[in-house]
Design brief:
This protein is an alpha+beta fold. The relative contact order is 0.19. The two termini are 36 Å apart. The protein is elongated and about 80 Å long. A six-stranded mixed β-sheet has the order 1-2-6-3-7-18, with helices on one face. Strands 12-14-10-15 form a four-stranded antiparallel β-sheet, covered by helices on one side. A three-stranded antiparallel β-sheet has the order 4-5-19. The protein has nine helices and 19 strands. The protein has helices at residues 8-16, 28-38, 106-127, 151-160, 213-225, 274-289, 314-327, 344-347, 372-389; strands spanning 42-45, 58-63, 69-75, 96-97, 100-102, 134-140, 167-170, 182-184, 186-187, 189-198, 202-203, 240-247, 255-256, 259-268, 296-305, 308-309, 334-336, 352-355, 369-371.
């Protein structure tokens, strides 16, 4: 085994070179494990399986036996590369060019994982492994797809092992223009409704003998999208209602179809729950279909998370102080809840959780990259947070 190198840039490159497109690991977890074992962490690989889903490997690592317990959570899996020919450099090369490190996963989120490992190395080298607290890494290989065999099961495993956390940082790319200028204190909920409207098939010339489900479904969707679901709340944007699919599967221009289908995707804030939105949709269906005896409408639901938030408090204040001290800034830390879902939705049931990572700029895009200077800044910020969390400064 080659000599362990804790430099955050070198480590980001090493991780990016692992083509770990979900559910494949391709050595990414081993890179993390080797570094943490070298620091004295107890490492446990946690492969999980569930019928109908890909088997996925994960890693839990812990050091310390008593005192405050801080966890860092992240994922080593990445999304597919798309058209490789569109990339400036090979997507798993970790090429450095003009102050930028290129590669799939560099931003989302191997760069943040590398920086926290590097910062932990700096912290332990300065204060020793007996630093008066507990530090854990919760690293999954199943975040970018179904997230069935990843963090959610890892957290259940920690509960079975009576492992209790006080706080957790998820290393998603949250920074806006400079490292540490924005954190995520929560996320909107996400729910999909798959709708099937059924009418009566017939000839378009004899519409009086048929019932066109397309007309009814369009009418309902138009009403749903004609005005905002809400106006937002203190920490959340207005909920987003989107119609990503509409399907009739009818190739004949003179036939009224029997079935029309659509999908409604809602990213909802803290004025709603999955349960309340299910009731809301049932009400919308009733308004449209109750007076249409020849037609009916049903739906199935797929919910990936409820809306949640960690209210600003001691942990938020600690991070804000670390940012101001490290970068000599006077401006307040921006607290966001925007974006899609993250594994913080699984961790919130176990401890307070915030998201803080590299600048959000190119994730999932062709030529995904991070600035070398940002990796160094994030390493320094994570180290400052560790010092303040474990009261070493």
């Amino acid at each position: 085994m080659s000599k362990i190198n804790f430099d955050c840039i070198n480590l980001t490159q090493e991780l990016v070179k692992c083509p770990s497109i979900t559910p494949k690991d391709e050595g990414a977890l081993k890179v993390v494990e080797n570094h943490l074992k070298d620091l004295g962490f107890d490492c446990t690989r946690l492969p999980f399986s569930e019928k109908g889903f890909d088997d996925v490997d994960n890693l839990f690592a812990k050091i310390g036996t008593s005192g405050k317990h801080l966890a860092f959570a992240g994922h080593t899996d990445v999304v597919p590369i798309g058209n490789e020919k569109s990339w400036k450099f090979p997507p798993f090369s970790g090429t450095i060019d003009n102050g930028k490190l290129y590669g799939r996963g560099a931003e989302d989120m191997k760069g943040s994982i590398a920086c926290f490992i590097s910062a932990t190395n700096t912290f332990i080298k300065k204060y020793g492994s007996d630093f008066g607290g507990q530090l854990s890494f919760i690293i999954t290989g199943d975040e970018e797809k179904e997230a069935i065999n990843g963090t959610i099961k890892m957290m259940e495993w920690t509960k079975q092992k009576n492992i209790v956390f006080n706080h957790c940082i998820v290393g998603e790319p949250t920074s806006n223009k400079s490292i540490g200028d924005k954190i995520k204190i929560g996320r909107r909920g996400a729910i999909n409704f798959f709708i099937t409207a059924r009418g009566v098939q017939g000839h378009t010339a004899n519409s009086n003998r048929a019932e066109n489900p397309v007309h009814l479904l369009i009418s309902m969707l138009q009403r749903i999208t004609s005005k905002p679901l809400d106006d937002g709340s203190k920490y959340f944007l207005p909920s987003s209602v989107q119609i990503p699919t509409f399907d009739v599967e009818n190739s004949a221009a003179n036939v009224i179809p029997e079935i029309a289908k659509a999908t409604i995707n809602i990213r909802f804030n803290d004025t709603h729950t999955g349960e309340s939105l299910n009731k809301w949709l049932k009400d919308q269906i009733s308004i449209t279909f109750d007076d249409k005896p020849k037609a009916s409408c049903s739906f199935t639901t797929d919910q990936t998370g409820e809306c949640f938030m960690t209210k600003p408090g001691e942990f938020h204040n600690l991070i804000e102080e670390a940012v101001k001290e490290q970068f000599l800034r006077n401006s307040d830390l921006e607290m966001g809840t925007d974006g899609g879902t993250s594994d913080a939705r699984f961790i919130k049931n176990y401890c307070e959780v915030l998201e803080l990572g590299i600048i959000n700029n190119s994730l999932h895009q062709t030529d995904e990259h991070v600035n070398i200077s940002d990796l160094k800044d994030l390493h320094n910020l994570y180290f400052k947070i560790l010092e303040k969390y474990f009261q070493k400064n």
